[in-house]
Structures are given as structure tokens and as C-alpha cells.
Design goal:
Largest sheet: none
CATH superfamily: ACP-like
Number of strands: 0
Number of helices: 4
Low-confidence stretches: none
Strand content: under 5%
Distance between the termini: 27 Å
CATH architecture: Orthogonal Bundle
Mean pLDDT: 91
Structural class: mainly alpha
Order of helices and strands: HHHH
Number of domains: 1
CATH class: Mainly Alpha
Shape: globular
CATH topology: Non-ribosomal Peptide Synthetase Peptidyl Carrier Protein, Chain A
């Protein structure tokens, strides 16, 4: 698992999963389907991404394709970091 995924998993576990018994979810598991994140959770996640990784998440980027699993989050952050 990449360092980025480890950091993201830690954040999700500490802020959304603690006590739910779902910390062993797969990297490609949907946060929505597992009921790990709700709409306010996604907003908190976005605030974390912007602060921790120095990326800006535009309104049109607030989508499951970018934010709904560890794999999607990591890929999104990498794309944002390497964008011109």
C-alpha cells in the first residue's frame, strides 16, 4: 500500500470509522456503500485534502469518481499534484 493510501486510511479510520468495526475495508471499497461517509463527511474529507495535500477541490470535482474510495482519493490527489 502506498504511503498516500496509508495516510488517507488513517484519516478515514480516525475520523469516520472508529468504533464501527469497518477499518478493514478494501482500498477500492465505496465509502458510501459501506456507510463510512455521508454528505457532511465528504465535506470534512475535502477540507482535509485541501489542507493536508495543498490541493483545491472544485465543485465539479465533488463526485464519487474522485472521492468514494481510498484508491479514487489517492488517484485524485496524484492527478491534482501533477496538474499544470
Amino acid at each position: 500500500m502506498s504511503g498516500l493510501r496509508v495516510e488517507l486510511r488513517r484519516f478515514v479510520n480516525e475520523n469516520f470509522v472508529m468504533g464501527s468495526g469497518r477499518s478493514d475495508f478494501a482500498d477500492d471499497a465505496s465509502f458510501s456503500d459501506l456507510e463510512i461517509l455521508d454528505s457532511s463527511g465528504f465535506l470534512e474529507l475535502v477540507a482535509y485534502l485541501e489542507e493536508a495535500y495543498g490541493v483545491t477541490v472544485a465543485d465539479e470535482e465533488l463526485s464519487p469518481e474522485n472521492l468514494d474510495s481510498l484508491n479514487k482519493l489517492a488517484a485524485f490527489i496524484e492527478r491534482k499534484r501533477h496538474a499544470p
